[in-house]
Specification:
conserved putative lor/sdh protein from methanococcus maripaludis s2 fold; efflux transmembrane transporter activity; Elongation Factor Tu (Ef-tu), domain 3; 6-stranded antiparallel beta barrel; Multidrug efflux pump subunit AcrA (Membrane-fusion protein); alpha+beta; OB fold (Dihydrolipoamide Acetyltransferase, E2P)
Length: about 375
């Protein structure tokens, strides 16, 4: 019985060994599965060369084109006027901005004018006797002399004899002394040189003003200028009078400006040139930041693509028979996000969007609206 059991076990082992060996041979000869090729869907565009305008973006803040910093040239107490001297106060041209107490100085001016009058009156008898031909001229001058008005100009001297006589009496010297005092008296009052608004007030009514002290700032809020710096390569292209598109930083408002001035020198440190853009709008305020788009020039027979589509060796990917290839391109101008290229033939199919991991020889499938529609139905 024992021998029969051992025999059966031996037969089973032989059969199992045979089946295992057969399986190993079958697995060895079995072909490996072929990995399916992955074909990426890409966005493409067909090249059509055209005229590409070069637009230079630049940013800057607005400053009033007409701007006056107010400084005191005399000393005295600030007297109240018809309007409070406060920031935001508007004035018309010719209105008094600041009036400094000049009562003491005014008295000295009147004294000098009186001395001049007396000097001329003292020579009138001599003129009547020795210079009868010019007596009436000087008599008319005295008759028109008013101490409460600006000193009139001395009569014109027509002969050397008259000149020597009048000058020798010190009348000409006295006259110019009076005019000098009157000029200084006018500085006790500051008037608005144009209609505008006070943007800064550093003194208040009743305070003592000192010579050379800054009093405030006055601007014309109707015209502003924006200073921007651009590359020196466009120095000979930008022209005065060209229209410029302006927007605020939020891109919610747009304005139109004009190139008013172009600096004649280039900044040695930054190699840029300064351009001034004039803009008028009631919604603008001094200090606002705006972005300008300056039309510099136009490139003939060129295309504009995203900067990330241009490779480091100045090549771009093209699609030929569903396979990626590379061709050389000549970059002309770079902006923040775009690049202008030349030497790309018309009809060339290029990538419209960058493909991660792209390489020459890569199989691709152009994206179409029909494919997208079928995929959405599925």
């Amino acid at each position: 019985m024992r021998k029969i059991i051992l025999a059966i076990i031996g037969v089973l082992l032989i059969i199992a060994s045979f089946l295992f060996a057969k399986k190993l041979i079958a697995d060895k000869n079995k072909p490996k599965p072929v990995a399916a090729k992955v074909i990426k869907t890409v966005f493409i565009d067909t090249v059509q060369n055209s005229t590409i305008p070069i637009v230079i973006p630049a940013q800057g803040n607005l400053t009033a084109k007409q701007r006056v910093e107010l400084y005191a040239e005399v000393q005295g107490v600030f007297r109240p006027g018809s309007k409070l001297f406060k920031a935001g106060q508007t004035y018309r041209q010719g209105q008094t901005l600041i009036r400094v107490d000049a009562s003491e100085y005014y008295a000295s001016v009147q004294s000098a004018k009186s001395n001049l009058y007396n000097s001329i009156a003292a020579i009138m008898p001599d003129l009547r006797l020795d210079f009868s031909d010019i007596f009436q001229k000087w008599q008319s001058y005295l008759n028109g002399f008013d101490l409460n008005k600006t000193t009139p100009k001395l009569p014109e001297m027509t002969s050397d004899k008259e000149n020597y006589f009048i000058t020798g009496r010190g009348i000409v010297t006295n006259y110019y002394n009076v005019k000098n005092l009157e000029q200084r008296l006018a500085k006790y009052s500051i008037t608005a040189p144009f209609s505008g608004i006070l943007t800064e007030a550093l003194v208040t009514e009743g305070s003592l003003i000192r010579n050379g002290q800054k009093l405030g700032e006055f601007i014309n809020p109707s015209v502003y200028e924006m200073e921007v710096a651009i590359s020196k390569s466009f120095a000979n292209i930008l022209k005065v009078g060209e229209s410029v598109s302006l927007t605020n930083l939020d891109k919610t408002e747009s304005y139109t400006g004009t190139v008013s001035r172009v600096n004649g020198s280039i900044d040695a440190a930054t190699q840029t040139i300064t351009v001034f853009i004039e803009v008028k709008d009631s919604n603008l305020k001094e200090g606002m930041y705006l972005e300008a788009n300056l039309d510099a020039k136009q490139i003939e027979n060129a295309i504009e693509i995203d900067r990330n589509l241009l490779l480091e060796d100045q090549q771009i990917f093209v699609v030929k028979d569903s396979v990626l290839d590379m061709i050389p391109a000549k970059p002309i101008h770079f902006s923040d996000t775009k690049v202008v290229l030349k030497d790309v033939p018309n009809g060339t199919v290029i990538l419209k969007r960058a493909v991660p991991g792209a390489y020459a020889g890569m199989l691709v499938k152009p994206f179409t609206e029909n494919v997208q529609a079928k995929d959405s139905i599925k």
